[in-house]
Structure formats: C-alpha cells, structure tokens
Q: What sequence folds into this?
C-alpha cells in the first residue's frame, strides 16, 4: 500500500536517514523498531508530511506522493498519532475531531447536530462510551488516544501511524487499544506501530522493520522471532575511542544516592523514580542507559535539586548530606548539571560566550563586592576557550551563532568554572557532529582522570560503552542492572532496559 | 556599498539619529524650540518619565511588565503630600503625628518599594502573569489614592518641598539631577553588577538561569521593588512640581513608560535592551510632545502622531533584527 524508495534525509550535514527502502501493507500491523536516534521519528515525520524535503520517493497506492504539510498527508489518507497527543483540552470531543474540517449548514453556520452524530458513530465503533460533548480534559489519556484514532478514521485514513501509543496508558487501556487495532486491521487499514516495548510488538505486530543509525537493517515477519533476535539486530554500532587502560579511580565514594524516589504529580500511582540507590567513586565515569521514559533525566534533575517537592531520599557527597531542595544548594555542594536540551535549559542564547560561561561564578568575579570584574571574567573564559577548543571568533560573540558542539562546550565550561566534584551530563552529545562528539568523549575521560566523578546519561549504547567505567541501566523508574564495563555489551544492556522483556 | 559599511552604526544609533532629525525639524518649524527656557522645560517634564521608565526597563528586561507605575506614582505622591501637610491624625488623643520633609519622602519611597515588592511576590509566588498582577495593582493603588485623598487634591506643602520639582542646582533643574542620578545608578547596575547580569540572563532564558543556580524569584522581586520605588520617586517629583497631589495623577503614565522602553529598543520578550536606550526613547517622546504643542497641533492629533511613532519605531527595530 505504501512504499518508501531510497529515502535519504539530512539535517545540516548530519544524515538522519540513509537510503531507506521499505514497504507497508494493508491489513497488517508493521512494527518499526530501533534504538533512540535510529531514525524512526524522522521516517514517520516524512511519511506524515512534517518534513516535506527529502531525497528519494514515496509511493502511495501506486502514485508517487510528496506531502508539503501534515494536512495534505491526512487528506490523502495517512494519519499520525503522536506520542504527545495533539488535542485541545478545553474543546469537546466533537470539536476536536472536526477541527479544521467543520461541517456547515447551508446558511454557513456550524452544523453541530450532524457533527455530533458522526462523532457518536465513530465513538461507538471504537467502543468509547462517552458523550461527544465531553471535554478532552475530562478524559483519561487512553480515551484521548482513542479520540485521536477517531480523528484519523474521520478522514478515512488508510495508513495510521502510532508513535509509542502505550507509553502513557494503563494495562486495561492497552487491551482496549489492541482490540481497536485488531478491528482496524480487519478493515484493511495499514497500522504502523512504533514502540520500545518488545513484548507488545509480539502481541500485536505482523511484520517488523529494524532501523539503526538511519539505515534500514532488516524486515520480516514477526512469527518465529524471539526478543533476542530483534535486540541483536538493533545493536552493533562502533565508536573508535582509545579507552583508558586501567581505572584511575580510588575506592573513595564521592557521591552516594540512597532510596531516591520521585513522585509523578499527574499520576499518583506511578512514580517517575522508585527507590534508586547507587554510588559514584572519585574519577569514575558512570554511564546511565535507559530508553525514552525510563527516568534518566528525572534522576539527574532530582539529584540536582530541581524537584524539591516531589523527591524523597538521601544524597551524600563526601559523607555530607546534600539537601535536595534547590539547584543552588546542589551547586554549593559541588554538583553541576549539563542539561539535555542546551538551547532551552543550558544557554542564554542572546548573551555572548563570556557572559554564558561567567554566569555561574559572578560572585567570585566581583571587585569591591559589587562591581563585576570584566578582565578577570574574560581571562577565565579565554582559558576555557583554549582548554575546550571552543571555536568562536571572540568571547564576545553571542551563543546563538555557534554550532551545537561549541554551544555544548560552553555549557560544560560554565560548570567547570565552579570546580565541581561531580559532573552530571544529560545526553552530552545529542545533536552534535562526530568530531565534536569525540572531543567531548576525550574531555569526559580527562576530567575523570583528574578525579572528577562523572555521571553520563545517554541513549546511545556505543557511547555508553566507549566512555563509562560502569553502567547503570534504568527502566520505568527503576535501576534494573548494574554492570561493570568489562562485562557489558549492547545486548546485555538493552535487555535490561526494555520494559517487561521476557 | 558605502551605506552597507555604515549600516551597523546606523542601526546602533538609530534612536539618536531619529532624535536629531526630530529636533532639526521642529527647530525649523518653530523658533521657540531651540531656546534655553524651552530646553529646560522639556527636560524637566521628561525627567519623571525617565525615572519611571528606568524601572520599567529593568522589568521588561526580565520579560515582565508593570502596568501599575502610574497608580503607584499617584498613591505615593498623595501619601507623601498628605503626611507633610496633615500628618496622621489621632482623633482619640486629639493629636497629630507630624512628619518632617525627609520623613514624609522616605515613607513615600518605602511605600513604592513595598507595592512593587508585592507585585513581584504575587508574580513569583503564585505564578500570576505580570500583566495581570500589575493590572490588579493599577486598580488597587488608584482606588487607595482616591480613598486617601477623598477625591480632592492635596495642595500647599510649602516651598521646601516644591524645591524638588521646581528648584535649580548648579544651573540645572533638580528633577533633571535626580533622574540623571537614577539613570547613572541603573546603568551601573545593568552593566557592571551581578544583579544586572542576572536580569539579562533571566529575560534571555529563565529556565537556563534557574538551572545555573540563580535565584530567579528573588531577582524578580528585587526588580519589581526597584520599579515601585522609582514610581514613588516620580510621584514625589510630580507632586512637588505642581505643589499638589492630584488623585488622578499619573493616569496612563505606564503607557508612556512602556513606549519609552520600546522606542529605546528594549525587547518586550526580555533579555535585550538598555537603560540608555530607554532614556533616548523618553527624550524622543518628550521632544515630540513639546514640538507638537509648540506647533499648535491639536491634542487629538498629538495622540495619533505619538502612536504612529511608537509603531514606526518597533517596525524599524523588528526589520533590523531580522536582517541580522
């Protein structure tokens, strides 16, 4: 029904998809499998018209199509249901379903009755027993998802793409969803199903397609496959990095985390973090791996004091208790966090390099206790510019004009300026080019050699294996494995990371 | 080619250039414009707006806004005037608590700081958008002003008090001195101190600032307090100049102040702009007002022209930043 032929997509030099060719059939559920960053979402965004520019072609029901926006794709019959649902909370189900394609009476007024009836019909078909006038906010997440499906059915979509549809819903809701998917399949619809939960895929999918590093690895029928077979296909990327020969770290713990929990403010029953304990030695690089939603980012944020009201547990550094109440107390204790999204949380893009680096140490750079000492600050920045090889014409250049790699170095520099004992890195190489990645790896290792404790969260397995001394694996808010690097392999780590895998 | 070379300078000094052109135009059209007495008159009038707008600039730099400055100005002016003239009556003891000039002024200023601080507290503690929080304060402070004055002006505070608004020092009007000192201090704060750097950082990216260990809420409360204190300063200057505290003093001053900030090139989205730009913006508005009066333009047209200038300034600013 849908054929993708030699599709390549590049983002300013970085290849996200390389020469992908695949087929999606009607009356089948096709699972798309791959690590984070394998190219799944890029592919889905191309199919659904979010990215109109790519090389290669897409053939839908025998015709070559090229959608310039999601609406075109929808009208043609391809609908996508995103992980974050796109519904307007304070409008009713009917109003959401008909948004942008309202029915009108011959006088040009909204034909509410007809729309309501059509909505009722769709909801009945999907066995959702609520009134069409119910507001979206009053629905559970699982029900909202069904509304999204209803929206797709209204346009008579023949291909329905579901991106991690079960990530936020309960088990009974999953059952309902699977029933609906089965019904859709019997109506000859093509379902594209993206999920990390392999056991789910075994229940629902007919075929699988494995992506890795933007390349199509294999496709085939689901029958007869085992979890291990699929994991094997997902892994297998290499990073060439000279490892430290032997671990320099002493036996001294620099950071101890005990029974750390983090409540989910929206869903009382399910915590983001459940009873997490681990320790970090001086000079050690601890890699933390987990799939999307495993709680990796939340763990770092909680340690850094960003969730004072929801967190419980004890954090000690060098034997002293660190209050998990604010980032400033965390900084005082010697912690530093390089956040996942550097543009949103790491940098003030409109300010220059110097002001960004200097922001954490303004207190030390004052003369007379009031005025900022520009000379001292710029000397500090020049030092880091040289040490970290930040490529900028001067420290007075604004941060938004630099490349991702250089921006990341600025964020790291601003924290190194505080002389932290423990550096928390959240996806330190996301979205930066290979050379800059390698420089950051080297930097991490050299900082560890100097005795700094480093925790690196990453969703890239090769990166975890190349840099860490020890690996913690998280899944659904729990530490599921702790593996010394000598025993770690991609298969072992992935197995521990996949929820409920058999 | 040559124009391209000069473009960065043209952009950098665009408000200054606009001001010079404006002055040139008015002086050609009216021979009264370029006289000493008119010059000082304009400066004296502008000084109140400058004083308020400096506070507004700090707030806008943090990506906030303060609609209450006009009302806070009126309330603080009225209280200072009232304390000076009537003191606080204690009917039960049949006594009056009198206030010295300094005492009345200090209380007026402290009131301004506290009202501003209250704004900041509401905004940070309850996450009320600045627009709404200060809109409420606009009404509250105006109401309190009418309650305190019972709707009548308070006049006749004496010559000493009038000196602040009408006096001269070393050949320059006192309010001009005061606004100049305010500008100088604010210039140092924004460029040379931790607070200033934090203000720009918060306006540029609040989340990153918080993650860098900056106490964002504290900085915001301080900034709103400063703005309140400066509004009170403006209130005292206005009251002193007229030797009368009017219950409806300062109505729509917040708009003039925001206009000065915007014409001065400070982004309402926060993080970008300067105190000096605002000073230029305030001067442009003042000169424009003065010129239109001198040219006998009807007051109705004056408003239209002022609005058009604000629009023009922002459009030019936007198109410049797009080209960068």
A:
């Amino acid at each position: 029904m849908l054929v993708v032929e030699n599709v390549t997509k590049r983002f300013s030099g970085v290849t996200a998809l390389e020469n992908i060719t695949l087929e999606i059939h009607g009356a089948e559920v096709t699972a798309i499998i791959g690590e984070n960053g394998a190219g799944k979402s890029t592919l889905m965004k191309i199919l659904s018209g979010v990215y109109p520019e790519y090389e290669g072609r897409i053939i839908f029901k025998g015709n070559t199509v090229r959608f310039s926006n999601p609406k075109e794709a929808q009208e043609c019959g391809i609908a996508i249901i995103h992980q974050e649902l796109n519904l307007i909370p304070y409008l009713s189900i009917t109003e959401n379903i008909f948004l942008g394609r309202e029915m009108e009476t011959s006088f040009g007024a909204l034909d509410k009755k007809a729309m309501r009836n059509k909505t009722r019909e769709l909801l009945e078909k999907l066995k959702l027993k609520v009134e069409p006038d119910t507001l979206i906010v009053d629905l559970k997440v699982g029900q909202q998802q069904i509304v999204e499906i209803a929206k797709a059915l209204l346009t008579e979509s023949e291909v329905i793409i579901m991106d991690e549809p079960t990530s936020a819903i309960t088990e009974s809701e999953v059952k309902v969803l699977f029933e609906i998917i089965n019904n859709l399949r019997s109506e000859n619809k093509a379902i594209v199903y993206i999920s990390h939960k392999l056991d789910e895929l075994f229940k629902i999918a007919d075929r699988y397609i494995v992506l890795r590093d933007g390349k199509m690895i294999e496709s085939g029928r689901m029958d007869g496959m085992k979890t291990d077979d699929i994991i094997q296909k997902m892994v297998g990327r290499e990073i060439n990095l000279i490892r430290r020969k032997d671990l320099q770290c002493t036996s001294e713990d620099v950071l101890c985390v005990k029974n750390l929990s983090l409540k989910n403010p929206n869903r009382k029953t399910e915590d983001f973090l459940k009873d997490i304990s681990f320790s970090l030695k001086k000079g050690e690089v601890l890699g933390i791996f987990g799939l999307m939603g495993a709680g990796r980012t939340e763990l770092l944020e909680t340690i850094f004091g960003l969730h004072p009201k929801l967190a419980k547990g004890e954090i000690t550094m060098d034997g002293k208790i660190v209050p998990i109440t604010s980032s400033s107390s965390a900084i005082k204790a010697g912690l530093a966090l390089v956040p996942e999204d550097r543009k949103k949380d790491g940098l003030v893009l409109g300010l220059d390099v110097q002001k960004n680096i200097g922001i954490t140490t303004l207190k030390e750079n004052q003369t007379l206790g009031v005025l900022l000492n520009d000379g001292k600050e710029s000397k500090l920045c020049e030092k880091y510019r040289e040490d970290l090889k930040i490529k900028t014409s001067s420290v007075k250049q604004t941060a938004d004009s630099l490349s991702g790699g250089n921006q990341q170095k600025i964020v790291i520099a601003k924290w190194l300026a505080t002389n932290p004992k423990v550096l928390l890195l959240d996806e330190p190489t996301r979205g930066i080019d290979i050379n800059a990645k390698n420089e950051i790896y080297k930097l991490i290792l050299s900082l560890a050699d100097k005795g700094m404790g480093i925790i690196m969260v990453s969703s890239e397995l090769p990166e975890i294996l190349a840099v860490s001394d020890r690996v913690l694996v998280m899944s659904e808010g729990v530490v599921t494995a702790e593996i010394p690097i000598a025993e770690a392999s991609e298969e072992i780590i992935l197995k521990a990371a996949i929820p409920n895998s058999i | 080619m040559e124009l391209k070379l000069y473009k960065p300078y043209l952009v950098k000094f665009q408000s200054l250039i606009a001001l010079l052109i404006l002055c040139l135009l008015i002086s050609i059209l009216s021979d009264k414009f370029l006289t000493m007495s008119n010059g000082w008159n304009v400066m004296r009038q502008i000084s109140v707006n400058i004083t308020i707008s400096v506070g507004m600039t700090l707030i806008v730099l943090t990506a906030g806004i303060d609609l209450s400055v006009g009302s806070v100005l009126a309330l603080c002016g009225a209280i200072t005037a009232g304390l000076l003239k009537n003191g606080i009556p204690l009917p039960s003891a049949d006594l009056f608590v009198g206030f010295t000039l300094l005492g009345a002024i200090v209380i007026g200023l402290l009131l301004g700081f506290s009202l501003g601080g209250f704004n900041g507290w509401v905004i940070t503690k309850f996450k009320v958008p600045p627009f709404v929080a200060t809109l409420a304060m606009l009404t509250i402070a105006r109401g309190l002003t009418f309650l305190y004055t019972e709707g009548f002006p308070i006049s006749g505070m004496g010559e000493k008090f009038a000196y602040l608004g009408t006096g001269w020092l070393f050949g320059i009007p006192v309010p001009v001195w005061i606004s100049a000192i305010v500008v100088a201090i604010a210039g140092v704060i924004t460029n040379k101190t931790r607070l200033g750097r934090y203000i720009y950082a918060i306006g540029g990216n609040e989340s990153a600032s918080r993650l860098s260990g900056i106490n964002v809420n504290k900085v915001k409360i301080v900034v709103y307090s400063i703005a309140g204190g400066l509004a009170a300063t403006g209130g005292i200057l206005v009251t002193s100049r007229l030797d009368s505290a009017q219950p409806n003093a300062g109505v729509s001053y917040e708009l003039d102040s925001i206009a000065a900030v915007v014409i001065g090139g400070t982004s309402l989205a926060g993080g970008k702009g300067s105190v000096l730009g605002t000073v230029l913006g305030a001067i442009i508005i003042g000169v424009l007002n003065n010129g239109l009066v001198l040219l006998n333009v009807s007051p109705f047209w004056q408003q239209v022209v002022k609005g058009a200038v604000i629009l023009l300034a922002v459009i030019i600013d936007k198109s410049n930043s797009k080209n960068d």
